[in-house]
Amino acid sequence: MNRILITALAAILLAGAGNALAQQRRPPPAQVIMMTSPAWKDGDVIPSKHPHAGTETSPALAWTSAPEGTESFVLIMRDLDGLSNLGTDTHLYWMLWNIPKEARALPEGVPAFEELPDGMRQISMAGPWYRGPAASIAGPPHHYAFELFAVSTKIDVAAVGQTPAATEAAVRAAMQGKILGKGTFIGLFKRN
After folding, report:
1. Cβ proximity of 67 and 181 under 8 Å
2. Among 54, 124, 136, 63, which residue's Cα sits nearest to residue 96?
3. Global pTM?
4. Residues near 182 by Cβ (< 8 Å), separated by ≥ 6?
5. What's 77's domain CATH number?
6. What domain range is 161 assigned to?
7. Is residue 130 situated within a structural domain?
8. How many domains does the chain have?
9. pLDDT tens for the chain, residues 1 to 192
């Protein structure tokens, strides 16, 4: 009886210690970052100068704060309605990384360079620049998400030298376990 009781208590203690270790390794939940744009309200239609069929000018975006420990930001623009069955985006519309930790906004019309003077890097499916929404005429408007991640590191991934999909995968891998906060801003677009 004592042997069974001791074995049961040991199992309970080991299980509790395992859970405590797992919780210590789990990163804290990401802080919510509020995003805005002077071009449209969250969830509204993207103005005509920002899509692929327009002048393809990147929109101005702003955010409220940075969680403690933020070393840089990553912005990924994707078409939520264009996701494959595997949950991945088949087209990378725009990705910027190493946005300075002091930044609280991106200006309209980010220049088309693989690396900007402040160290920020960018890529899209078309090259190192913003690629505007391009949803087809058929079907309902698509939801384009601008996802901003506050990360606890700078990301050492070159903007060119591999496919945009490989660059995105490398940036996302470098972000794993380092995301401190996230914000999402939505715009709708359908080609006329």
Report:
1. yes
2. 124
3. 0.82
4. 30, 31, 32, 33, 147, 148, 149, 150
5. 3.90.280.10
6. 28-189
7. yes
8. 1
9. 555 545 544 455 455 555 554 455 565 678 999 999 999 999 999 998 998 877 889 999 999 989 999 999 999 999 988 765 555 556 789 999 999 999 999 999 999 999 999 999 999 988 899 999 987 778 889 999 999 999 999 999 998 888 888 999 999 999 999 999 999 999 999 887
